[in-house]
User: What shape does this take?
Amino acid sequence: MQFEAIPNSAQYAGGGAGIQAAQTVASKGVQVVLTGNVGPNAYQALAAAGIQIVTGAYGTVREAVMRYKQGELRSTSSPTAPMHYGMGGGYGMGMGRGRGMGMGRGMGMGRGMGGYQQPVYPGSVALPTSPMTKDQEIQMLRNQMKNLQEQLEQIKKRLKDLEK
Assistant: This one.
């Protein structure tokens, strides 16, 4: 299993931190990002770069990659967290600290996942942001609830396995 940890220089940035982190990840040629949740700005930037976004990751990097390889984690087709969800410092579910966006290139998955992908160039992902509509926020919250339910089930399963 191979991965690259990428320092998140946007970790303490105010607005646009998700976009900056997504640009850094895209510039490294990443094809898949494993994360706990993804906000609307980061989602938009990663999706525009052709990067597959997999949410619901938790635990160590090794555990998250193992869950991904075993098919326990799924791609998301929309943001799973509201804007500024990861703000507030500390070790939350946001990007960085080795649990979110810093998974890096490859992870043993190769570079041929899913057909042709356009090349990504550093700085090419900057996108204008706009507030979510009510329907978009409802969908995002539903997705977040679904992901949290899946995480809870995975935690329950793991606890059950450990308590045997």
In short: The CA atoms of residues 152 and 158 lie 10 Å apart. Helices lie at 17-27, 40-48, 61-69, 134-162.
